[in-house]
Amino acid sequence: MIHRSLCVWKRHAVGNSVGTVCVFLLIIFLLCPFFLVDSARAAMIDTSKDRWEALAGYGQSFPGWGETTQRVETIDLVPRYNHLIFDDVGSGWYRGFHSILVELPVHVVVSPDVSTMIGLNFLACYTFTAGERWHPYLFGGGGPLYSFADIPGMGADWNGNYQFGLGAEYDLLEKHNLLVEFRYHHISNGGSKEPNEPLNSCKFLIGITF
Fold first, then answer.
1. What is the average per-residue pLDDT within 179-205?
2. Is 70 helix (H, G, I), strand (E, B) or coil?
3. How many domains does the chain have?
4. Between the CA atoms of 34, 37, 38 and 42, what dihedral angle is there, to the nearest 10 degrees?
5. Partners of 52 in the beta sheet?
């Protein structure tokens, strides 16, 4: 019984630690700008600097990472809308802007099943603009996800997902910039149905702004 209890605690500890890190990042992203800029400069409704972005890439889950048991490979297509919240935040190396990303990702599952998963993500993002052409950024958030795929261990079609990661934007042309991203991605049904074996994945994406 003691050994079993320790195993259960370890599984929950891994899941809770990942969730805690994600929530902590979101709190930083969402609250920091309010302390760094004057409220008069906030442009919550202004969409003049908003833009559309499109990304594509590859993702893979790793058995043994947390409670993940299946190796699931996906081709990811991610159209998204980037809404500027605060511009010209901070100074020096951390000068940048704060935005909200709204994504409608399509995950084309290529293994072990051939099917799709579709989600809706709301991500907080901070982009560093001190560099001349390269602009790194951090992001985190999540949302609902529906799975058409038959993946062992996923006991529900409706799931939740959260993710966080880092990326870089490179100035190519006046209206088209190159995007490169690496992100951690978690999918589970939150215990609403059994079985509930989550997918802990890494994803690499490239894209363009327009």
1. 96
2. coil
3. 1
4. -70
5. 81
